[in-house]
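Data availability (excerpt). The following record was deposited with the supplementary files.
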Amino acid sequence: MPGALPGDTLVIASHNPGKVVEIRALLGSYVARIVSAGELGLPEPEETGTSFIENAELKARAAAAAARLPALADDSGLAVEALGGAPGIYSARWAGPDKDFAAAMKRVHEALHGAGDPRAKFVCALSLAWPDGRIETVEGVVHGHLVWPPRGTKGFGYDPMFVADGHSQTFGEMEPDAKHAISHRADAFRKLVAKVFRS
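Predicted structure:
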């Protein structure tokens, strides 16, 4: 949308290749050129926020300032009801320094042992920051439940153990287009597009 962004380039403030692929698929028709913080060699700021929104805004502001370009940050994770919302904003940290999400999923499964309630949700906060300090933030959610063992090799992160309400496949089994139609990230992107790219 003309006027939505100064210039034609948007920085995705992420070093997660899976996340970058999803964001490119969701925003590619609105932005001429999308580059990631990883491709630009930008440092990853320490995530010191206490919510998905705070961390997304922190990452977006840091990337916009460093690249002097509009930057989009996503902070997302899995929140399990029986675990008091954990792993929540620490979803990536549960995977450890090697980003071992097989181990992270096993940790969630073991923490749930005996709880009996597999209800969970994925949350995605998106922040779009401009170099001049302007920022727009939205949050998307998809509700569902967890399954064990994990199923599917598509997607990334906790996708193979999450089944969205009204569906039988895990996010790890879904084709990308099917997941993009219902995911927390897609929900957040619809809100962001309505606020920024169609204004």
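Summary of structural features: Residues 52-67 form the longest helix (16 residues).
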